[in-house]
Amino acid sequence: MTEEDRVFLITGASSGIGAATARHAAKAGFRVVLAARSIDKLAALVEELGGPDRALAVQCDVIEFDDQKAMAAAALDAFGRIDVVLANAGVGSTSAGIENGDPANWRDMIRTNFYGCALTAKVCLPELRKRRGHILLLGSRAGRMPLKGSIYGATKWAVTGLGHNLMEELEGTGVRCTLIEPGMVDTPFFETPKPDALRPDDVAASIMYAVSQPPNVSVSEVLVRPTPPTQS
Ligand SMILES: NC(=O)c1ccc[n+]([C@@H]2O[C@H](COP(=O)([O-])OP(=O)(O)OC[C@H]3O[C@@H](n4cnc5c(N)ncnc54)[C@H](OP(=O)(O)O)[C@@H]3O)[C@@H](O)[C@H]2O)c1
């Protein structure tokens, strides 16, 4: 099997880390399945990455189980296989803290960042088992450290737990599972630019590092942070 034939599915591919990873994966020879709600952005990325022979856009709201089932089915219909999955779709908080936070935003974060991620794993695992494939969950450094009053951070702690529990479930299947845990990344996730943060390409490179290991090597976690700026 050549790398050309392999299929890499990404949720949250319309922006930021997901779009950057799609570009890196396409460059590495993968065919890519791009899922998100913004179908116009995905369609533009499909054209950029070589058109329908190389890329597929799927409109999917990750909080909807039916959308996620349809996403996996569309990938198999178009390309006949799924080898690598990046569960990346996520949203941030609109107001800080527990006392002052907005419960509607908490629900969105829990459903997108945690429930959506678990659904992506559920719908893709049967195919990944067949392919002895690889699933990567986009957690966060915020899921590895206490963050004052952060419900967003708590959803990422849940993703860390999901990843480790999934690794246990996948024992003996040949399927690899990796948690990607970036510090701050300069993406549309934030309303203002973050010049001292990582770039989406940096995180995509970390993802491709885990994906490109030989079959006997499973990278469990990649915690990647921006280098602290020099004090002068
Ligand atoms: N930026 C950071 O500092 C940072 C650090 C650590 C971890 N992360 C995590 O990295 C992931 C990607 O974030 P990013 O920084 O690249 O932000 P971004 O540029 O805002 O991208 C978020 C992506 O998620 C998609 N998305 C959101 N809700 C969705 C839903 N219900 N269904 C389907 N897709 C949905 C968005 O697409 P649509 O709106 O088109 O659906 C978009 O493609 C997130 O899980 C985030 O928590 C970010």
TrEMBL record:
<dbReference type="Pfam" id="PF00106">
    <property type="entry name" value="adh_short"/>
</dbReference>
<dbReference type="InterPro" id="IPR002347">
    <property type="entry name" value="SDR_fam"/>
</dbReference>
<dbReference type="GO" id="GO:0016020">
    <property type="term" value="C:membrane"/>
</dbReference>
<keyword id="KW-0560">Oxidoreductase</keyword>
<dbReference type="InterPro" id="IPR036291">
    <property type="entry name" value="NAD(P)-bd_dom_sf"/>
</dbReference>
<protein>
    <submittedName>
        <fullName>SDR family oxidoreductase</fullName>
        <ecNumber>1.-.-.-</ecNumber>
    </submittedName>
</protein>
<comment type="similarity">
    <text>Belongs to the short-chain dehydrogenases/reductases (SDR) family.</text>
</comment>
<dbReference type="GO" id="GO:0016616">
    <property type="term" value="F:oxidoreductase activity, acting on the CH-OH group of donors, NAD or NADP as acceptor"/>
</dbReference>
